[in-house]
Amino acid sequence: MTQEENGGTSHGVGGRVLIVDDDEAIRDSLTFLFSSRGLVAESFASGEAFLDRAKDDAPVCIVMDIRMTGIGGIECFDRFQQDGGTDPVIFLTGHADVPLAVEALKKGAFDFVEKPFNDNALVESVIAGLNEAQTRYMRTADRDALATRLKSLTPRERQVLDHLLEGRFNKQIADGLGISMRTVEVHRSRVFEKMGVRNAVELSRLLVDGSL
User: Fold this and answer.
1) Is residue 171 included in any domain, yes or no?
2) Which of 14, 142, 158, 171 has an alpha carbon 20 to 30 Å from 63's alpha carbon atom?
3) Which of 88, 115, 140 is the last residue of a domain?
4) Domain extent for 183
5) Could you tell me which residue, 156 or 140, shows the higher pLDDT?
6) Per the domain annotation, does 4 fall within a domain?
7) What average pLDDT does this structure show over 26-50?
8) What confidence tens digit (pLDDT) does each residue in 55-109 have?
9) b/e 46-62 (16+ beta carbons within 10 angstroms → b)
10) Are residues 113 and 190 in the same domain?
């Protein structure tokens, strides 16, 4: 596996650019281009090397040649998605391969750029991809954090939470669960504390926004 890393932070954009291309000259050129624009870049000489990399622990935008020896760009993209990959992928394509690129867009690719590409246009697309990757990464992190909070609830606290989400008052919850109102108040307070909210309205909004 060939990997080259370089970069800076002049754009203020988080994450890295992963270059996947079997042409060494293209890899070197793109690594230099992104580095010169203040972007962190890492390159892979094949689709196989890219798929075998360690799991990304930060947002990435992937720039991938649509035609490569071994695993081609479309197959590599398919496998990436099958492995749970959600980071934006930008395909580099020749004019004759535009239909393939359109197919990739339908499958969820972020963008495609025709060769010979304009440096500024490619960098702008990559920056947009990195911003999207950051948004997706934060959304996933928020969902994971919310799931952790929910798991911290005891079975009884989870029951009280469910009743709260149904808009029930303390007395209704007490009658439904066969416990005292005082016990409901204690569980309710603990639910709010563990979930980091002040009331049932905030609790409902948190769970709706978190899609859980």
Assistant:
1) yes
2) 142
3) 140
4) 153-210
5) 156
6) no
7) 96
8) 777 899 999 999 999 999 999 999 999 999 999 999 999 877 888 888 889 999 9
9) bbebbbeeeeeeebbbb
10) no
